[in-house]
């Protein structure tokens, strides 16, 4: 008896299993030429709670605007419009050192 090859599953044409909808660059949609570092409300949307700049994969920004966005966030931090890191919350005591008994 001749052996038959196992059939492969076909991927759906919509991108794949469990993939989210494609995000488009907000700045391209609004036809923004340059990202302004003084527009703090817009910049805050692209910064995480900890103060890190979010990646292109998460924000959906194109390469050109992501580079401008990163430099605008850095400039806004330098001008003290945005914080470098988030403030310490009440329940977070990780910044404290544990005291050791010296017996």
Task: Write a structural description.
The protein has a domain at 26-78: Irregular (30s Ribosomal Protein S18), CATH 4.10.640. The model has no long low-confidence stretch (mean pLDDT 83). The relative contact order is 0.15. The protein has helices spanning 26-29, 40-44, 56-59, 63-78. It is flat, with a radius of gyration of 23 Å. Helix content is 28%, strand content 0%. It has 103 residues and is mainly alpha-helical.
Question: Which characteristics define this entry?
Answer:
103 residues, mainly alpha, 30s Ribosomal Protein S18, flat
Lay out the secondary structure:
Blueprint: H1 26-29, H2 40-44, H3 56-59, H4 63-78
**How much helicity do the residues have?**
25-40%
- CATH overall fold name of the domain at 26-78: 30s Ribosomal Protein S18
* Strand-pairing-aware structural class: mainly alpha
Please identify which CATH superfamily of the domain at 26-78 we are dealing with.
Answer: Ribosomal protein S18
The tally of strands reads: 0
Stretches where pLDDT falls below 50 for ≥5 residues? none
CATH architecture of the domain at 26-78: Irregular
Provide a quick synopsis of the model:
The protein has 103 residues and is mainly α. The protein has helices at 26-29, 40-44, 56-59, 63-78.
């Amino acid at each position: 008896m001749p052996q038959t090859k196992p059939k492969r599953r076909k991927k759906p044409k919509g991108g794949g299993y469990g993939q989210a909808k494609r995000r488009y660059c907000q700045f391209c949609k609004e036809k923004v030429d340059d990202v302004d570092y003084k527009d703090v409300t817009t910049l805050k949307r692209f910064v995480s709670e900890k103060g890190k700049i979010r990646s292109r994969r998460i924000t959906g920004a194109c390469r050109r605007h992501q580079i401008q966005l990163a430099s605008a966030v850095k400039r806004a931090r330098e001008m003290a419009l945005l914080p470098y890191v988030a403030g310490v919350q009440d329940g977070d005591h990780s910044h404290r050192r544990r005291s050791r008994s010296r017996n």
